[in-house]
Every structure is written in structure tokens, then in C-alpha cells.
Amino acid sequence: MKFTSGLIAASFLASAAQAHFTLQYPQTRGFDDDAEVTPICGGFNNVTNRTEFPLGPAQIQISSFHTTATVLIEVAVGIDNPTTFSQFNTTSSGTTYPPLVGFNQIPEGPACYNVDISSLNISGATNGTDATILIIYDGGDGTLYQCADVTLVQGFTVPKGAIESNITCANIASAPSTTSSSSSSTSAPTASGKSASGSDMSMTISSISLVGSFLLAASAYLL
Ligand SMILES: *[C@@H]1O[C@H](CO)[C@@H](O)[C@H](O)[C@H]1NC(C)=O
Ligand SMILES: *[C@@H]1O[C@H](CO)[C@@H](O)[C@H](O)[C@H]1NC(C)=O
Ligand SMILES: *[C@@H]1O[C@H](CO)[C@@H](O)[C@H](O)[C@H]1NC(C)=O
Ligand SMILES: *[C@@H]1O[C@H](CO)[C@@H](O)[C@H](O)[C@H]1NC(C)=O
Ligand SMILES: *[C@@H]1O[C@H](CO)[C@@H](O)[C@H](O)[C@H]1NC(C)=O
Ligand SMILES: *[C@@H]1O[C@H](CO)[C@@H](O)[C@H](O)[C@H]1NC(C)=O
Ligand SMILES: [Cu+2]
């Protein structure tokens, strides 16, 4: 008995150590390290659990197991089971909206983001609307995906303990728009709370090339 639980703990630690990234909150649709490379939701094509998530101010936490990684977070709203990338930036009436969290670079460890779905002004996003949050992650070994299926609830707040209490949650401006503004106010979220203000220029360049590769991945998927 003891031996068995020891084995389970050991295999859990082994898989956590190999992971590219994990989604701490909200609850992931599913995590399979090997299938994480499969669009759109890392190998999980069907909605199973849907959890409540704030329509207003909220946090999202991931853990990254690469030295540096680039992250983009998008949301599809009012669609039971989104199956194309465009459903994560376009309403049913054809209006496009920005990502929930723009491209940003993170160090290894936990990363937390302040988000507010209501601030995206998506017409269909009201109390009780279904949504799917999509984490797109690149730690240098491919573009990886995880989804979280939620119901947006007005006035709901992230439960205490869902986010590690000793980390600072970052405010990441929306991704640079196609009309390039040189002063994107992206900043890397850090576990310690100290700002990782490395080289903004190289971050911008790598963000742009990642935008390109993400879009390539997206269009490859759509073809
Ligand atoms: C996912 O949904 C599809 C279409 O409804 C179904 O054919 C398939 O069996 C489902 N897969 C799982 C794992 O439930
Ligand atoms: C659904 O959520 C419940 C409660 O969080 C959890 O116990 C269960 O394992 C989840 N099921 C799946 C398929 O993720
Ligand atoms: C929306 O997403 C699609 C698919 O990823 C992409 O081709 C398109 O450029 C995006 N539109 C905007 C305005 O960002
Ligand atoms: C949402 O609407 C508010 C108020 O009109 C505006 O300040 C904000 O820029 C809008 N956000 C987006 C993403 O369009
Ligand atoms: C949102 O909907 C839930 C039930 O789904 C309800 O309990 C709650 O009062 C609603 N909140 C607001 C602000 O209307
Ligand atoms: C935060 O707390 C967890 C345990 O709750 C600990 O493992 C981790 O090292 C702490 N992180 C920092 C940056 O203090
Ligand atoms: Cu990896």
C-alpha cells in the first residue's frame, strides 16, 4: 500500500518535471504532455467539465517548465465547443476582439495574469455565458495548447487558494495590433514580484516572429 502510493507520487513528480507547462487555474479541459502540441486544445476535443469563472476581474495561473517561454491567452465566448482559432478572436457577428493576454515572455516557474473578460466588450459575454479560455505557449519545442471550459458569472471571484498566494499577477496589455505601435507595454510576469525588465527590444522582435509562427500554425490548422 505504502509502496504503491510512493510509486504514484514518483510518477506524478516525473511527469511534472517533464511537462512543458501546466494550467493551475482555471481547471484545464485536460492535460496530456505528449498531445499538448495538438491544436486547438492540446488533444482534448470535447468539453467535459465547465467551471464558473468571473465575467469581470479574475486571474489565470500557469506553471512553465522552460527557461523562457512565450504565452498568448485568448477566449471564445458563447460557443459550446469552439473548433477554429478564429472563434477565439471573432464574434458571431464578425467583430474581432483582442486576446485576453497579449504575447509575453515568462521565466520558468509559476506565471499569473490579471484578466477581465468583460473589458474585451464582447457583445455576447453576459452572466451565464459559456466560454473557453485558450492558452497558447511556446517554450522553444513547438506551439502548445491547453483549454479551460468555463461559464462566465458576473460577481463571481476567483476562489481563495486557486492562485498561489505568494506570486504576483501581471497585467499584460493586448497583443500589438497590426498597425504597429512601438511602445507595447508588455512586461513579463514573475514569481518573485520583481519586474523582469530584460531587453524590451528583443522581446518585441521575438514576439513578432512568434505572432508569425502562431498564425502559421493557425492557418495550417484551418487548411
Ligand atoms: C467527442 O465528440 C465527438 C463528436 O460528438 C464524438 O464522436 C467523440 O466520440 C467524442 N470523444 C470523446 C473522447 O468523448
Ligand atoms: C471534473 O471536475 C471535478 C471537480 O473538480 C473533478 O473531480 C473531475 O476529475 C473532473 N473531470 C474531468 C474529466 O476533468
Ligand atoms: C484572428 O485569428 C485568426 C486565426 O488565428 C487570424 O488569422 C486572424 O488574423 C486573427 N484576427 C485578428 C484581427 O487578430
Ligand atoms: C471597451 O469599452 C471601453 C469603454 O467604452 C473602452 O474604454 C475600451 O477601450 C474597450 N475595450 C476594447 C478592447 O475595445
Ligand atoms: C448571475 O447568474 C447567477 C446564476 O447563474 C445568479 O446566481 C447571479 O445572481 C447572477 N448575477 C448577477 C449579477 O446577475
Ligand atoms: C510559493 O509557495 C510555494 C508553496 O506554497 C513554494 O513552493 C514556492 O517556492 C513559493 N514561491 C516563492 C517565489 O516564494
Ligand atoms: Cu516543452
TrEMBL record:
Major location category of this protein: membrane
Region Disordered, residue ranges: 176-200
Domain Copper acquisition factor BIM1-like: 18-171
Domain of life from the UniProt record: Eukaryota
Topological relation to the membrane, as annotated: Lipid-anchor; GPI-anchor
Keywords: Cell membrane, Glycoprotein, GPI-anchor, Lipoprotein, Membrane, Signal
Subcellular localization, as worded in the UniProt entry: Cell membrane
InterPro entries according to UniProt: BIM1-like (IPR046936), BIM1-like_dom (IPR046530)
GO cellular component: plasma membrane; side of membrane
UniProt biased composition (Low complexity): 176-199
Signal peptide boundaries: 1-19
Name of the protein described by the UniProt record: Copper acquisition factor BIM1-like domain-containing protein
Taxonomy of the source species: Eukaryota, Fungi, Dikarya, Basidiomycota, Agaricomycotina
